[in-house]
Protein 1
Amino acid sequence: MQLIAVLLKACATSLVLVALLYGALFAEAAFAQSEEAEQELAALQEELKARQQALQGNKADAEELQSVLEESEKNIGAVARRLNNTKSALVDNRAQQETLTDRRNELEQAIAQQQELLGGQLRTAFISGNYDYAKMVFYQEDAARFERVLTYYKYLNEARQKEITQFKASVTELEQVNAQLQVKAQELTALLSDQERQQNELVARQQDRQQTLVKLRSKIATEEGRIAQLREAEQALVEAIERAQRASQIPQELTGLSQDKGKLLKPASGTLRRLFGKRRQGQVRWKGIMIDGREGSAVKAIAHGRVIYSDWLRGFGLVTIIEHGDGYMSVYGHNQALLRSAGDAVAKGETVALLGQSGGQSSPNLYFEIRHKGKALNPLQWLDI
């Protein structure tokens, strides 16, 4: 019995030792698992932190690229505006040269006629020059006939003197016209040189813009990012309108657009895209329309008014906003160049900008809105199209 008791006691002791051993092993395993979990958690936190930093970096890069895009498109606008002025000067120069050339031809014909007339008068004077006036006076030959001859010579000399004066004036004017033509030809050469230089600069600026645009699009590749950009752009437009309205004083003669509904001028030539109200991205909808056209073509005011905003705006590029009175305004975006400044009065049909692709567009078009007291209206119901 004692032996059995000793054996039982030994078994119990062994079980306790085994239990303690397993407990130690389990504790060690639990500790290892806990440490591994903490390591995994720390690694996950580091990954999340890295992602957050990357997102912030992308956002910072996108902001920086937006600034670069703004500067690039403003530079393009400045060059395009100078190029447009040069083209206008070229047209004026050629018109002036044409007018001067026509005048030169008229003067040459007049001089030829005057030369012929003077030649005829001189021949007549020569033929009639056989009279000896002294003899007629001293010898009292036919006094009446003598008086008629004197009167004839008087009129002949007066006519000749008049023709000579006109001839001299025509020759002098012809010399002046030829000198002006020479000056205009030199101006034309300089203008053509300026045009070529400005055109090359415009191409270079556009290439820089394209590189910036590619980088910017790579930073905003997700739908969420694009939606956020659209919302930011729309908010920027609303805020720009509000600031411009607070800063401007609307003339009393501007009475709005309501009387011209359906008769307003189409702001640009090209293919109309009826976008108003359609889904743009996510829940963002179009507030206006687009007109696809030729880059550098005219963007015209739909009605008379006053420019209250003329600058670059995120998402819309180079923008002109015209106030028409009674809370009505028209918005012209994606322009290549702005030709009117804030405060300028504009007439219906006046060119206020050049059609382009600013604001990150990939092809030239005009983005156009009509708003009344801040609310976007469907332009298709207001334009004569």
Protein 2
Amino acid sequence: MIKKLLARDTAETHRVATPLELLFDLSFVVAVAQAAASLHHAVSENHAGAGLLAFCMAFFALWLPWLNFTWFASAFDNDDTLYRIITMVQIAGVLVIAAGIPAVFEHQDYRIVVSGYVVIRLAMVTHWLRAARDNPAHKACAYRYAGGIAAMQVLWVLWLFVPPGLALALWVLGMLTELLIPAWAERTTATTWHPHHIAERHGLFTLIVLGESILAATLAFQKGFDSGVNLISLAAASLIIVFSVWWIYFEAPSHLLNLKKAFLWGYAHLFILGSIAALGAGLAASVDYDLHIAHAPGTTVAAFTTVPLAVFLLCVWYVQDCPGQAGVRKYLLPLGALAVLAATFGPAPIHVTAGIALVLCIATRLVQSADQRVAA
């Protein structure tokens, strides 16, 4: 059945992720796993700089389509036949990106990734054109989204043919332009996104990305058992770090009070989610280092755990924790980030980082409990 793609009520009760959205997220499990695994191998082979650049470009190609679809679905999802088919085309595009990620890391070949990206984004254009047709009040906004996204796909295809010396600068310019499209489109009539739904969707994607770090801990157990090397303490430290990331992210409520704050909160998740994925790659590289099969220096390997965790702590503090806190609690996560960075250069950096992360979890809970007692 084909229905009108009408804007949904922002105050709708019991709004949760749909089975189609969960299937959409499932495709990203594969793609994020490819990006994290490729970064892991790049770090272990001492190609950290090139690997990090490839990871950033690949992860952006995954994150932005997920973000745009999630906010669109929050505003217009009607779950009719056409909506499902268009979304499934987007899922196919995600899998094309996943298939092309190894070529990005190994040969700096972006053709497959760009092809998958264009498939996802042109399907998104179709969604927006339907919304423009069925919602006169949102027509200008929807047409701006559709036109801006479509124009960018032409530019991304042309980007494949630019000289290598200009590729990075033009990619940054294209990325910034993509990020400006929503701000430009929403200046007409803001879409009717649902705050609770958006917070839940980002939380679910955070859990997906955290799975890569859990996989790294599992890898430590497995390789330790297979090789006879005792990696139990490394696996335990990895799990503590993963549990702490989960604890800290979900400890503070989301601040989606208006469109301006929502833009800041949503875009900050590029760094939150990217840092979690990179953290998983760093933990996996630490396993290689302890097994003496990594070619990178210990400080480099450690930095791919400590730096992503520090970035995560600062971003969560800025967009979720800091706005609602005062006193000591307001400075816990920044101080923790500094301590984590310092651990990079000390002995047993992963174990020390795990200890810092655990202390942060305990401290935030104690301070929160104290604040609640004062409020009562």
Protein 3
Amino acid sequence: MTADVWLPIPPDEIEGLPEGLNYRFWDGGEDGEQEFPADPADCVVYVVPYMKRYPVKVRPLAQLSHLRVVQTLTAGVDDVLSRLDDVVPGVQLCNARGVHEASTAELALTLTLASLRGVPGFVRAQDRGHWQGAFHPSLADKNVLIVGYGAIGAAIEDRLVPFEVARVARVARSARTTARGPVHPIAELPGLLPEADVVILSTPLDDSTRGLVDKDFLARMKDGALLVNVARGPVVDTGALLAELESGRVTAALDVVDPEPLPPGHPLWHAPGVLVSPHVGGPTSAFLPRAKRLLVGQLRRFVNREPLANVILTTGETGV
């Protein structure tokens, strides 16, 4: 048996890969049916292909009988989690913390500013050749609530600071204190929502956050508030959001939706006060250099038998 690493980036394009491992390129191919690069039983580290359909990502898992590490190139691992029953015990699942913070935080600010300042309306007016001035709200002096204060949530706040917001409130699973101030537990959301002009979602998707933004959550948002979702689509109850958008009480900017991809004719496409981008928070020019650095660092730790970074769980230790 050899110690193979399956990489979705050609190994010769990654500088600094440690010796002692056999590197195989596999990204599923254009149609998701690409042949495996070697015997799956020899794979000890599987790096999940990025921006591929769910069936492609999980296709090898059941055959990787000597697997020790699954490394995603996404911050969220919800798609892989659903198939960990196929994986042998003792496998460490690691996410891509450090890869997507810059890009996703940039998009969160882009969506926020574009929505507040009426950029979608300007683009439509430009298409018609129509000069259409208007008065729009500014991000300055607004209260912003970040729901999901991990690495991406903190990166979003870093980028909010220069815009002279009045206040940033932070929410995570449990309370803690940061250099910028307190992080509130999710149980305090009901009291924080009515004060927020902008609510930015950057929380992982799991059982505790699926459907978090439901009818009650939205009802607690103040009139005219903006909801920005750069987390996962199922964090928001689409039906409940559509009802609020149709009423005109709130607006939304969504990089992720449920269902996804959003099918033609879906009411979200044409709901009033909504801006939709096609899940582009991560795939930018910032992705590849950060992804390569992550992989080199993780594989060096693996070869040197050092603790891996970004470990989410180990199979067999958490009941999966």
